[in-house]
Amino acid sequence: MIIPTWGCLPLSYKIFGSSISCSSLTEQSIISQLSILVDIQHRKHEVIHDVFCLPRSRRLWNAPEEKYIADYTTSGNNSFTDLDVVQSGLSLYHIELAFYGQGLSNFSAEHFANARYPPEIRERYLQIVANEQYHVETLSAILVAAGVLPVSLCTYAFPITTLEEFIETTHAFENAASSLWNYASAAIVDPTIATLAGGILSTKGRHAAWIGTTLFHENTWNAHFETPLNFRQIYSSAKAFIVSCPEYQPNILGYSDTFPSLKVTVNHPSATFDFEALAGSTQPFYTAFLNGNGPSGNNSSQTFAPIDKVTGAVVIPPGLKGYTYALVTSENGVVSDDVTVAGLAIPNSNVAFGFGYTELELA
Questions:
Q1: Could you tell me the end-to-end alpha-carbon distance of the chain, in angstroms, rounded to an integer?
Q2: What is the spatial order of strands in the sheet that 285-291 belongs to?
Q3: Closest by Cα among 199, 54, 75 to 131
Q4: Looking at the structure, do residues 174 and 306 belong to the same domain, yes or no?
Q5: pLDDT single digits (tens) 115-161
Q6: pTM value?
Q7: Same-domain pairing of 205 and 331
Q8: How far apart are CA 3 and CA 218, in angstroms?
């Protein structure tokens, strides 16, 4: 199903007689006003660009690019800015909100009841959406205050046909978002934005914990640490949901250089990895399994297994615990963008690779 997507405006706007406030969302406003939200969001961008004759760029008004970079340069060897992180996080939030919007429109309280879920399950999902909307409002406000036009909505497609698929995908979204904001928190210099990123990380982790514990009967804490995942890794999976975007998109980290797709078919204790580079190649490839159960002093664990050159078969390493992701690399024992061949593969539940949270051993 392809839907026009929706999102919350940076503040409470009134454009052409319509007004939306993110702080007072109800189920009715979430479900029934989807078309109003997307219409206002798109008209807002047109008003800014066309009335003020601005170029279709990420700048809301003309300011020296040197000042913009000097004020928001990140630490280390990163080539992106704090505002790039905010913008990219906002872009992924648009995908999440579009997904939740479609899911809660398609699956009513009656659908949840027929699947024997108590009423509070769907109500909790509505509360998650309210959290997401507030995050979108806050991230957008940061960009506007800095003179940067927030990223526009795209058009998305979600191949979700059953309530079970919806719930499993919410699990994947919330865990992946926790991993992304874990990475982003370390890349931000500005203390206010860093604190915000940490707050989002904590909230997303609580969302994932509630879904995992209540709906999948997993340990609440998942693993010793959250698994850090960068924007390129996340977008390599999330971009599959994007049908098209406006041409005047800002710099979205990882969006334009995603890794080739990776399809994983699990038949425990093995799995088959299907990716483009495998066909006819004589080069060795390896699967990197990533989770947050690293050794003491390390916040992530990387376990490697060779991939059969002919069949793509992989023997899943024993002892994997917690929510685990998979990448294909060209070097054994190394995880970096330079050697990543395909991925990221995100499991829909903790049993995707045949292991569970209940086996988690605490030191």
A1: 46
A2: 301-307, 285-291, 325-329, 340-345
A3: 199
A4: no
A5: 999 999 999 999 999 999 999 999 999 999 999 999 999 999 999 99
A6: 0.77
A7: no
A8: 33
